[in-house]
């Protein structure tokens, strides 16, 4: 892996307390938060740009609705005062948030994406970033998803959903690495 750009932004997607809601089901990658924390610490130490993305749901029943505890950032991954926060209402962090402009104003071309849900907000944001011309890297072991039932009623294990989502991204939109590889090239 080539070295990470000096101004590469770490984009932490939807690491909110609501992701622990048991109604979301069984998840994969129980060490994801630890890997995200390792990358966050490295980015803070190097004084590289960090962007925290928070999902703000429009649904009254959602744990991600403003004012609900689930909407808040997880305590160990809470943004510092100088770190940029993006609030979104759809899975894609580029959609109607000003994120693209924020990155261009700072001449940031490379993004390291971590967070949840792999096949939802992570994938849609990485796809948009790749389509917009950013050099997108996804940290495979710093993301997770949940078991998912497809339209035919078949239950897919979170591990399989995660692997397929990352494979989709690696085809055209992003490069996929492990946290250790990113830290080694940091």
UniProtKB/TrEMBL annotation:
Describe the location of the Isochorismatase-like domain by residue ranges.
8-150
* A GO term for molecular function: hydrolase activity
> Which keywords annotate this record?
Hydrolase
PANTHER family in the cross-refs: ISOCHORISMATASE HYDROLASE, PEROXYUREIDOACRYLATE/UREIDOACRYLATE AMIDOHYDROLASE-RELATED
Please list the coiled coil stretches: none
Q: What is this protein called?
A: Cysteine hydrolase family protein
Q: Does the keyword Hydrolase apply?
A: yes
Q: Cite the Gene3D superfamilies for this sequence.
A: Isochorismatase-like (3.40.50.850)
């Amino acid at each position: 892996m080539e070295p990470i750009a000096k101004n590469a932004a770490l984009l932490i997607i939807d690491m909110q307390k609501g992701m622990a809601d048991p109604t979301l089901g069984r998840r994969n990658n129980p060490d994801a938060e630890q890997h995200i924390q390792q990358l966050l610490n490295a980015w803070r130490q190097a004084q590289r740009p960090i962007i925290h993305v928070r999902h703000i749901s429009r649904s009254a029943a959602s744990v991600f609705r403003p004012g609900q505890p689930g909407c808040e950032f997880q305590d160990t991954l809470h943004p510092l005062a100088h770190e940029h926060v993006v609030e979104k209402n759809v899975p894609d962090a580029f959609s109607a948030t000003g994120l693209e402009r924020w990155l261009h104003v700072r001449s940031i071309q490379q993004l390291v994406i971590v967070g949840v849900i792999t096949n939802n907000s992570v994938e849609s944001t990485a796809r948009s970033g790749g389509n917009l011309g950013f050099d997108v890297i996804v940290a495979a072991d710093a993301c997770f998803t949940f078991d998912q039932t497809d339209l035919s009623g078949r239950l897919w294990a979170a591990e399989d959903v995660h692997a397929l989502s990352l494979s989709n991204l690696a085809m055209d939109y992003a490069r996929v690495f492990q946290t250790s590889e990113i830290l080694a090239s940091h």
